[in-house]
Amino acid sequence: MRQACVTLYPALLAVTVLFFLSPTLAWRPWPHNKTNAQDSIFGDSKKFEGSSEFVHLKYHMGPVLTANITVHTIWYGTWQRSQKKIIREFINSISAVDSRHPSVAGWWRIVQMYTDQTGSNISKTVRLGQEKNDRFYSHGKSLTRLSIQSVIKSAVTARTKPLPVNAKSGLYLLLTSDDVVVQDFCGQVCGFHYFTFPSIVGYTLPYAWVGNSQKFCPGVCAYPFAVPDYIPGLKPLKSPNGDVGVDGMVSVIGHEIAELATNPLVNAWYAGQDPSFPVEIADLCEGIYGTGGGGSYTGQLFNGEDGATFNMNGIRRRFLVQWVWNHMVNYCSGPNALDQ
Ligand SMILES: *[C@@H]1O[C@H](CO)[C@@H](O)[C@H](O)[C@H]1NC(C)=O
Ligand SMILES: *[C@@H]1O[C@H](CO)[C@@H](O)[C@H](O)[C@H]1NC(C)=O
Ligand SMILES: *[C@@H]1O[C@H](CO)[C@@H](O)[C@H](O)[C@H]1NC(C)=O
């Protein structure tokens, strides 16, 4: 992360010092700040779908999610049924057995190849758990990294239908609607994951936040279904489920779930020297969705008859999801790779 540290150091320092937090960030390739993890690790030399020699992804002996994973979703703010459906179907597709190749389940098989000290693999099963609606913005329309933990606390301690506390195999996914501002959203991150503090929430629970960028920065967080204004001539691609913000969120959700599974307490699988700034299995493949991807090129994708762009199939829908680092072969891979 050398290059990124130069520009981002002040912000990170502030976060660390003020809040004792060092969340793992989902870097985006856009806009001006081209500080995605891959660029930083590889320096200026662009390599084919990542590279092997310079990446030292290591296992740091911490736990990974080997038991059946249950994703508990908190819908913060205003969500339409159609939007929830797209995201639920993506999560349900992760362990679906009958989707067409190349499938979301095929993508997850790369994540499953990671193991813990005992040789146990990441769980094959990822399912939807109970959900919580936080329709009335319990902590306002502007959230910080810390108030995100308070939102999770409210969800697990609610008087009616609290989310179950499942520290062993539960993941808590906080999704904010397109009118919610979140600290560092758009400028630096589209999502991040970390774990909750017992002092705030009462438990140590792995969680992720992902925001709907539709209003504030679709060109950053829903790329390539929206493009930044300052790049003339670049045209957005048609999104597969007709909702640019949500179709863009799907890839970020995939990014965060893959990293939560392999690095839930930020002491398992990551690259880089600095544990407070780990480069994880999805960070390494940021912006790569197909063969040949890298830099600002997405790689080879599919075009549906309806003109929509995608790279994998779910149960009933198609999705565009970024690739993840395959530690058996030492490069980024996905189910739609042409050479595998
Ligand atoms: C885990 O999931 C599998 C299949 O999805 C199921 O057969 C098994 O019973 C589950 N195990 C537990 C402990 O829930
Ligand atoms: C479990 O992990 C090992 C080592 O990475 C890998 O060879 C194997 O294919 C994985 N098993 C499954 C079921 O993914
Ligand atoms: C680039 O990063 C710096 C430092 O994190 C930030 O202040 C600035 O707003 C970023 N620029 C853009 C266009 O996001």
Automatic annotation (TrEMBL):
Any one annotated GO CC term: apoplast
Matching InterPro entries: EXORDIUM-like
Localization in the cell: Secreted, Extracellular space, Apoplast
Superkingdom: Eukaryota
Position of the signal peptide: 1-26
Keywords for the protein's UniProt record, in alphabetical order: Apoplast, Secreted, Signal
Similarity field: Belongs to the EXORDIUM family.
PANTHER family, per the entry: PROTEIN EXORDIUM-LIKE 3, PROTEIN EXORDIUM-LIKE 5
Identification of the protein by name: EXORDIUM like 3
Organism: Quercus lobata (Valley oak)
Underlying gene: LOC115962256
